[in-house]
Amino acid sequence: MTQMRIKTVLRDKKILRMSPGSEKRIRATTQKNLDRLVHMGKLLRIMGLDRKNRLAMLEGLWETDYHIWLCHDGHQHLVYLSKDETRPANLEIDAYPWQ
Predict the structure, then answer these.
(1) Is 9 within 8 Å of 46 (Cβ atoms)?
(2) Hey, which residues does 68 pair with through a beta bridge?
(3) Number of H helices, E strands in the chain
(4) What are phi and psi of 38, to 5 degrees?
(5) What share of the chain is helix, strand, coil (3-state, %, to 5)?
(6) What is the sign, positive or negative, of the torsion defined by CA atoms of 24, 80, 11, 20?
(7) How many Å apart are CA 3 and CA 59, to the nearest integer?
(8) CA 10 to CA 81: how far, in whole Å?
(9) What is the phi/psi pair of residue 12, to 5°?
């Protein structure tokens, strides 16, 4: 298990009013949660997505400066969103890039 703290997925009323699953909502949620280790399922939920259509997250972030780092800790699927294409130094668990 990691000692790195898993953060709560950040959101606001403006994001929640956006169309669920829209590119705009995906990007706004990503921007709000940059450089944070968060739970993948909860992040998808705030984006208006579910596990079945999680590839829509990639499509929404296509051709942007965002990088997605997938992590697995115990039974948790985690994600770290960054604008840095190199592995973040503060990411204390195994991760691999998804974009």
Answers:
(1) yes
(2) 81
(3) 4, 4
(4) -130, 165
(5) 30, 20, 45
(6) positive
(7) 32
(8) 12
(9) -145, 175
**What CA–CA distances, in Å, run from 80 to 12, 45, 83?**
19, 16, 10
Predicted TM-score (pTM) of this structure:
0.87
CA–CA gap between residue 29 and residue 10 (Å, rounded)? 7
| Distance in angstroms (rounded) separating the CA atoms of residues 13 and 59 | 24
Q: Per-residue pLDDT for the chain (99 aa), expressed as one digit of tens each? A: 445 678 899 999 999 999 999 999 999 999 999 999 999 999 999 999 999 998 999 899 988 999 999 998 888 999 999 998 888 887 888 888 885
Q: Measured between alpha carbons, how far is 76 from 11 in angstroms, rounded to an integer?
A: 21
**Of 42, 30, 44, residue with least CA distance to 83:** 30
Using DSSP's 3-state secondary structure scheme, residue 72 falls into strand
Extract the tokens encoding 20.
């669920």
